[in-house]
Amino acid sequence: MASAQQVRGIELASSSQRTDLTVVLVCPQIPGNTGTIARTCAATQVPLHLVGPLGFELDDAKLKRAGLDYWQSVCVKVHESYDAFYTYWQEIEASKRGRLVAFSKFGGKSHCARGAYKPGDWLLFGSEVSGLPENAHKHCEATGGIRRIPIDEEHVRSLNLSVSVGVGVYEALRQIDEKGMEVDVEYRPQYGKED
To answer: In this protein, which residues make up the domain named tRNA/rRNA methyltransferase SpoU type (predicted)?
Structure first.
């Protein structure tokens, strides 16, 4: 199991990151998922917090392979436990802290509901095996709520963690950046027109 002091074999980001969104993985178990999520965080410049206990060492070959050489572009912070993470979050100045927003199949609000995200939000995703701990659900309910990514549960039990993080991050960024987004008209797909 990885501790907060262990980030061996991975050179981490020293570059600036976004301050309007943060991803938090609580007790991730599969190194390939965490590596893929780190790559998404590198692509979006969103900081990544890993909350233990982790189901792998941070020098795991599968973790590094899934993140490829993008680890140097990711701002990663490791916390020993959910309680340690929550204490860290509470110690941030209230005006800069943002909300805790959980993702769970038990969420009451869709991940893409209008106004679901605000600048400064911390997106919490639980373990592939057991989801988020009960106290995380309570903390999120009290601050930012719990989001649900709809799926057809008759055919699929759940989404892969890295897919869920990608869906959540890009929807949150779309909503946060919506007013400032520029759309390239040349790139926008045209339907129903013949050239």
So the answer is: 21-170
d(CA 6, CA 78): 8
The vertex-52 CA angle with 139 and 123, nearest 5°, equals: 40
Parallel, antiparallel or unpaired: strands 100-103 and 109-110: unpaired
What's the CA gap between 115 and 121, in Å, rounded? 12
- Among 64, 65, 79, which Cα is nearest to 25's? 79
Domains defined for the chain, CATH in brackets: 21-178 (3.40.1280.10)
- State phi, psi for 70 to the nearest 5 degrees: -90, -5
Q: What is the DSSP letter of 13?
A: P
Length of the chain: 195
How does the average pLDDT of the chain come out, rounded?
84
